[in-house]
Design brief:
Strand content: 25-35%
Helix content: 10-25%
Shape: flat
Number of strands: 3
Largest sheet: 3 strands, mixed
Bound molecules: zinc ion
Radius of gyration: 17 Å
Structural class: alpha+beta
Length: 82
């Protein structure tokens, strides 16, 4: 018996269509809690949605994007509270 195929949720295209309406100069910089570095690289937590929890009845992966410090690889607490 073949294992149920797991699908990756794809909502990135939709996110890219949203326009940035805030003035970026007025926004606060987030800095790393550990080293105070102010640049970050994208990272993902991948959630495994079990077939029992899934609306489609099929297992799937749900990527959650967060940001990792480019200097020390620390991930700020606020990025984990999604
Ligand atoms: Zn850091």
């Amino acid at each position: 018996m073949a294992k149920a195929k797991e699908n990756v949720v794809q909502d990135q295209q939709e996110e890219e269509r949203q326009e940035l309406k805030v003035n970026i100069k007025d926004a606060d910089d987030i800095v790393c809690e550990k080293c105070e570095g102010n640049y970050f690289v994208p990272a993902f937590i991948i959630k495994r949605i079990s077939p029992l929890m899934s609306p489609t009845g099929q297992g799937m992966f749900a990527p959650v994007q967060l940001f990792q410090c480019g200097e020390c690889k620390h991930i700020n607490e606020e990025f984990l509270n999604y």
